[in-house]
Design goal:
- The chain is an all-alpha fold.
- The chain has a domain at 35-92.
- It has helices at 2-25, 34-68, 71-87, 101-111.
- It is flat and about 65 Å long.
- It starts with a helix and ends with a helix.
- The relative contact order is 0.09.
């Protein structure tokens, strides 16, 4: 009898926790906190340095990427992504910065 009570409690707790997680995850457009923006400043400074380093790595890797036919993917991974992370990402937004809602709606409008 006692084991059944614990199982019910566990199942109900997990169900309520999953409902709570779904409700929390639906708030995507919250503005970043001041702490996130303050942390973002040194991250961007490091991003500038890493962009320079990854661009130099691209110069070294480009002959191999050209031979293998993956020059565009290498360019995007080593040059474009660090540039966008450093200069195009909104301040304080570290996750989901690539999914720009304006860009997605524009692509949908162009398809129609």
């Amino acid at each position: 009898m006692m084991a059944l009570h614990w199982r019910k409690t566990l199942v109900i707790s997990l169900l309520l926790a999953s409902l709570n997680i779904n409700c929390f995850a639906s708030t995507r457009n919250d503005p970043p906190s001041s702490t996130a923006i303050m942390v973002d400043v040194p991250v961007r400074i490091l991003g500038v340095g890493l962009t320079v380093i990854s661009s130099a790595i691209f110069v070294v890797a480009s002959p191999f990427a050209l031979i293998s036919g993956s020059l565009e993917e290498t360019w995007n991974a080593l040059v474009i992504e660090p540039l966008e992370f450093t200069f195009k990402r909104p301040m304080g937004k570290f996750d989901d910065w690539k999914t720009n809602p304006n860009r997605e709606t524009l692509a949908l409008e162009l398809e129609n």
